From TrEMBL:
Pathway: Purine metabolism; 3',5'-cyclic di-GMP biosynthesis. NCBIfam families: GGDEF. One of its GO terms (molecular function) is heme binding. Residues 334-467 form the GGDEF domain. This is Diguanylate cyclase DosC. Keywords: GTP-binding, Heme, Iron, Magnesium, Metal-binding, Nucleotide-binding, Transferase. It comes from Kosakonia oryzendophytica.
Length: 467
């Protein structure tokens, strides 16, 4: 439901921005578009150089920019961006907006602060004004219209980035917080039992007070109970399903409204009224128990970060872990290696021996992979028969030795599916060293290409991505 709402919101924003950008183009004199599309390559390159000189001078940008990246790739991308936005009268606006959406997702993926984007845009606008003002042939009134259009066009492009940036960044931060909390809550089941016990204890105390006719003033509201306080301050962060959280809030509020009713002097002495409150509370706490169990079940099932078959980390926390390791690597300039592993001809195992044999193979190979690496490294089940490994503070030379030893270790395995059935397996491995680019998806794609190269070259081998 949340994903659908975000998708609908994104589509609505796209339609709105498209119509407003089209209106901006139509109300702007053609001469303005002619001058902006007619800016020379040297003038655009000047804007790009000023932009990156300015951004590289700020410490906050160091994590996301390097002189090498600017010279080899980013300058060209910024050149194309300026050409397309300033020359939007000659562009397919729908495609241009889609490109801004993609840029926003990349910015969110690498954790680029939105204020740095705004800072860079401000510098670009100011420098463009200086470039245009230097053209003495442009009348003041026309110059004003050019500045107005170019500023609004840049603002619209950046707004389109922000529309996709915000939910993507929010999701990544939510996953990061859940990962942090789950590292604190070593055993979710223990926490579940603790809170069920706290809720039950409050319920029993409430029933006892009502049944024995103790003063209603002694009743503790559910929101102020041990369970209520935990839910308010910790549970809402740990149990991150918004719909379930809203339902829980409603149930707690309804319970406390009944308690307030029991505290009413005119009603509290009346046995029938107290019994009605008791029945209502028992019904509500029953619902709370069931909802709490569902929330913890969802947490264990979806958010514990472990693949249920192999007990390796699943893909959910790859963005969180990759961003953190990239940040560390950039700060201390220590390399790391990303490797993708795939069990060769896995489909034949399922076809020849059955899916239970496939599961045994996955668990066996996963155990070997996990045991092969250091406790500081990360091992994920990436999907199907594919695994991902992040070797921290390692270089290509070390990785070749470690990964080749792993390949040989797996090739020597004998998978037993019955006393009379054994078979061997092999893996293909592709790996890449960190190139100091902040977008982790680029690195995963490189490792994946290296994996496919290993398969194309005959399988049961390791292959490094070329630098």
């Amino acid at each position: 439901m949340i994903g659908e709402n975000m998708e609908q919101s994104g589509h609505s924003n796209h339609v709105l921005l498209l119509s407003e950008w089209q209106a901006l183009l139509h109300q702007t004199p053609p001469t303005v578009h002619d001058i902006l599309t007619g800016l020379g390559d040297e003038e655009i390159r000047h804007l790009v150089n000023v932009f990156y000189d300015y951004m590289l001078s700020h410490h906050e940008s160091e994590l996301f920019l390097s002189t090498e990246q600017v010279s080899t790739r980013l300058s060209h991308s910024m050149f194309q961006w300026l050409r397309s936005v300033l020359g939007s009268a000659r562009q397919d606006l729908s495609q241009l907006l889609e490109k801004q959406r993609e840029i926003g997702i990349i910015h969110a993926r690498i954790g680029l602060p939105i204020d740095l984007v705004a800072r860079g845009a401000r510098k670009l606008k100011n420098e463009l004004y200086q470039v245009l003002q230097a053209k003495e042939t442009i009348p003041a009134a026309l110059l004003s219209e050019i500045i107005c259009f170019s500023s609004l066009a840049m603002d619209t492009a950046i707004e389109a980035m922000t529309v996709s940036y915000s939910p993507t960044y929010q999701n990544s931060m939510q996953a990061q917080e859940q990962y942090r909390l789950l590292s604190i809550y070593d055993d979710v089941n223990v926490e579940r039992e603790r809170q069920i016990s706290a809720l039950t204890s409050w319920e029993n105390q409430f029933i006892y007070n009502i049944a024995t006719g103790l003063p209603a003033a002694d009743l503790i509201p559910l929101a102020k109970s041990e369970f209520g306080m935990w839910f308010s301050h910790k549970g809402k962060h740990l149990l991150g399903n918004p719909n379930m959280l809203a339902n829980m809030d409603t149930l707690i509020k309804q319970a406390d409204e009944h308690i307030t009713q029991a505290l009413t002097p005119a009603l509290s002495p009346v046995a029938e009224s107290r019994m009605a409150v008791l029945q209502a509370i028992r019904q509500l706490t029953g619902q709370i128990h069931r909802l709490l169990a569902s929330m913890f079940d969802a947490l264990v099932e979806l958010e514990n970060g472990k693949d249920p078959l192999t007990q390796l980390l699943n893909r959910r926390f790859i963005p969180t872990i990759m961003r953190r390791e990239i940040s560390l690597a950039l700060n201390v300039r220590k390399p790391f290696i990303l490797a993708m592993l795939d069990i060769d001809h896995f489909k034949k195992i399922n076809d020849n021996y059955g899916h239970s044999a496939g599961d045994i193979t996955l668990k066996t190979v996963a155990t070997v992979i996990y045991d092969h690496f250091r406790s500081s490294d990360y091992v994920f089940r990436y999907g199907g028969e594919e695994f991902m490994v992040l070797l921290v503070e390692s270089d290509l030379t070390q990785a070749k030795i470690i990964l080749e030893a792993l390949r040989q270790k797996i090739a020597a395995l004998s998978i037993e599916v019955s006393p009379t059935q054994h078979f061997s397996v092999t893996v293909s491995i592709g790996f890449v060293d960190f190139d100091y680019h902040p977008d982790y998806k680029r690195l995963i794609d490189k490792a994946d290409r290296a994996l496919y190269a290993a398969k194309d070259h005959g399988r049961n081998r390791i292959e490094a991505h070329p630098r």
